Amino acid sequence: MAIVKADAYGHGGIVITKTLSKLGIRRFGVATIQEGVALREAGIQEEIIILGGQFPEQLADLVHFQLTPVISNVDIVEHLVPLVKNLPRPYPVHIKVDTGMARLGLAPQSISSLLQSNDFAQSLVLQCIMTHLADADNENTENTHGQVRVFQQMVDQLKKKGLPLPLLSVANTAGILFHPTSHFDIVRPGLMLFGYPPAPRGDLAVELKPVMRLTTNIVQIRTVEPHQPLSYNGIFKTKRKSRIAVLPIGYANGYSRRLSNKGAVLVGKTRAPIVGRICMDMMLIDITDLPDVQQGDEAVLLGNQGDRMITALDLASWQDTVPYEVLCNLGPRINRVYVSKE
Ligand SMILES: *Cc1c(COP(=O)(O)O)cnc(C)c1O
User: Fold this and answer.
1) Backbone phi and psi for residue 50, each to the nearest 5 degrees, phi listed first
2) φ, ψ of residue 212 in degrees (nearest 5)
3) Domain range for residue 132?
4) Which residues are marked as active site?
5) Global pTM?
């Protein structure tokens, strides 16, 4: 199941989903019904699973667009059954069980009674039971082993009661990369599809290649006298006569303001520091030491330029977050260009 929520982690949900579908992926996970509807309206016909919770008033859309809910709350079954009980075939659903994340999910011991309830048995068909790992990127594997154990015990209980077993699914990216015992029938990669592990680690079993580059071009270069405060609030003051380049990208594009005076971009195949506050639509970089850099030159905010590279892991570490947030913040104002190798 390819996870393409949050606009495919900022990469463009429709194009990414269509591309993966061409490569043979038959199941897609998104967070919300709205995300699922957007994929359907773009013509995607594969199975679309709604991983997040659902509100009763959204269920008509869910059924209309043939989206598959992940049930993590018994109430939702009561609201769903009247909408699907007259359909020619039982409606497919997944169930989420909470094995230690303490976010969404039914208690493991409540699954068998739900499956045996009349409502469920008559109108719904269980395709998959899943759980979500809370700590699989931790080098200490104890919590993950505990979650897998709880999940396996639940499966054993269902077997003992003679209930037919659906497909089983546990692993996110970190589970796939670091915990073979969490793989079961369906794995649910999100971040790794886009070329990143959750955190830098030396022990990756597969080579991941970042999918996205984020580039802009220098819109203006100015020479600034020493002691000149730059941008809002003057949090950077030039120490010397400086060449400062203006980049037409800012926090409204999803490049975090927390990188003010902190981040760097690649220009002229070198890292140039961001100076002063990042604005809504612009930011400044110091190119005093790069005399060959000209107006119009490419600046790379994410990805490689020549053999230099800035990764989403770098951007995450500079602003104390995870590569997930760096990628999915990149907003709709950024023009996405897809390069095909065919
Ligand atoms: C987001 C999500 C995933 C994907 O997680 P990654 O760490 O990006 O691989 C898998 N399963 C569920 C339920 C999710 O919400």
Assistant:
1) -95, 105
2) -105, 140
3) 2-194
4) 5, 232
5) 0.96
